[in-house]
């Protein structure tokens, strides 16, 4: 099992610093959208979304990831104005009502800028800050934590025919390139986290290969974020629909933690916290850090 505690690292997210590696961090998914693949429409008013965000924090989320635009396969883009309308009231309320860090899940610089003005701590950009040319500047100026994710193609077409010669090597090379370019542009390394982009332009086999090789991303000495929660490739393996994929999601999360992941992005915070606590306890005992 990969020992996180042996390589504790710091992730700076504006005025907050996270000690990565001592325990797993849980990022709760909060989709303020009508069309997300699992919970689209459930939290599509600010009031419902805020209530859900508070619930995520109370059940153990260290980070709440607020999104106003679906990035599910085949999804279509929404305007900057509509995305702002969906997320800003939610972020504004959650900042004042919870101690959890707030992440904005967006590819648009103006959405990120407005979210940061409201107090958000993290930019979670599935395009690794490539979709909007103004996004790197926003990230550098704010000192926000940034999650750089790999995606082949773009959400509308990414699952049409994903192809790699070596998915692990290509994902790693892409993330390495983005880290180097953004660091050269002034983004502090301690603000960066990486995400291999499970399900974003990958087949079932690609996703499983990335899961098997997840510890290769620890070579960056940056936090590794992964999201398996309720994704369709788990359904292709188990034959279940999104509503019945909790067991498979938890199983994937456990394997990811044993392969070196630091942060799990999930719809199911309470259950994932239990899995993380179990794996963290085993890890501490194996490393000799357990005092019990």
Describe, in plain words, how this protein is organized in 3D:
With 292 residues, the protein is α/β, with parallel strands linked by helices. It has a single domain (4-287), classed as TIM Barrel, CATH 3.20.20.20. The chain has helices at 46-58, 80-97, 109-117, 135-142, 167-184, 204-212, 232-238, 246-258, 269-287; strands at residues 9-13, 16-20, 25-31, 63-67, 101-105, 122-125, 145-149, 192-195, 225-227, 263-266. The strands form 2 sheets. Strands 8-7-6-5-4-3-10-9 form an 8-stranded parallel β-sheet. Strands 1-2 form a two-stranded antiparallel ribbon. Helix 2 (80-97) links the parallel strand 4 and strand 5 (101-105). Helix 3 (109-117) packs parallel to helix 4 and helix 8 runs parallel beside helix 9.
What portion of the residues fall into strands of 2 or more residues? 15-25%
Strand runs, count? 10
Give the terminus-to-terminus CA distance. Answer: 20 Å
Question: Multimeric state of these chains?
Answer: single chain
CATH fold title: TIM Barrel
Please give the domain count: 1
CATH architecture, please?
Alpha-Beta Barrel
Task: Name a few traits of the molecule.
eight-stranded parallel β-sheet, 292 residues, 10 strands, single chain, TIM Barrel, two-stranded antiparallel sheet, alpha/beta, 9 helices
At a glance:
This protein has a single domain, classed as TIM Barrel (Alpha-Beta Barrel). It is 39% helix and 16% strand.
Helices, strands, pairings?
Layout: E1 9-13, E2 16-20, E3 25-31, H1 46-58, E4 63-67, H2 80-97, E5 101-105, H3 109-117, E6 122-125, H4 135-142, E7 145-149, H5 167-184, E8 192-195, H6 204-212, E9 225-227, H7 232-238, H8 246-258, E10 263-266, H9 269-287
């Amino acid at each position: 099992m990969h020992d996180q505690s042996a390589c504790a690292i710091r992730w700076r997210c504006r005025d907050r610093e996270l000690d990565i590696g001592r325990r797993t961090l849980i990022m709760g998914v909060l989709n303020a959208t009508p069309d997300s693949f699992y919970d689209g429409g459930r939290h599509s008013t600010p009031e419902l979304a805020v209530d859900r965000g508070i619930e995520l924090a109370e059940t153990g989320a260290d980070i709440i990831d607020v999104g106003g635009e679906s990035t599910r396969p085949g999804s279509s883009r929404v305007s900057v104005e509509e995305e702002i309308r969906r997320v800003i009231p939610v972020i504004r309320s959650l900042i004042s009502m919870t101690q959890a860090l707030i992440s904005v899940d967006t590819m648009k610089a103006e959405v990120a800028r407005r979210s940061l003005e409201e107090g958000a701590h993290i930019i979670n950009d599935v395009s690794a800050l490539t979709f909007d040319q103004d996004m790197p500047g926003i990230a550098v100026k704010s000192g926000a934590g940034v999650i750089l994710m790999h995606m082949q193609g773009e959400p509308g077409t990414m699952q049409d025919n994903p192809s790699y010669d070596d998915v692990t090597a290509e994902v790693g090379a892409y993330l390495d390139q983005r880290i180097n370019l953004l660091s050269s542009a002034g983004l502090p390394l301690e603000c960066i986290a990486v995400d291999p982009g499970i399900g974003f332009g990958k087949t079932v086999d690609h996703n499983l290969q990335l899961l098997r090789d997840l510890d290769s991303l620890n070579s960056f000495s940056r936090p590794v974020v992964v999201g398996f929660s309720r994704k369709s490739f788990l359904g292709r393996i188990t034959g279940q629909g999104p509503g019945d994929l909790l067991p498979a999601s938890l199983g994937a999360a456990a394997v990811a933690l044993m392969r070196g992941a630091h942060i799990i992005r999930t719809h199911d915070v309470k259950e994932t916290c239990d899995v993380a606590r179990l794996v963290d306890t085993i890890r501490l005992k194996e490393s000799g850090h357990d005092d019990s």
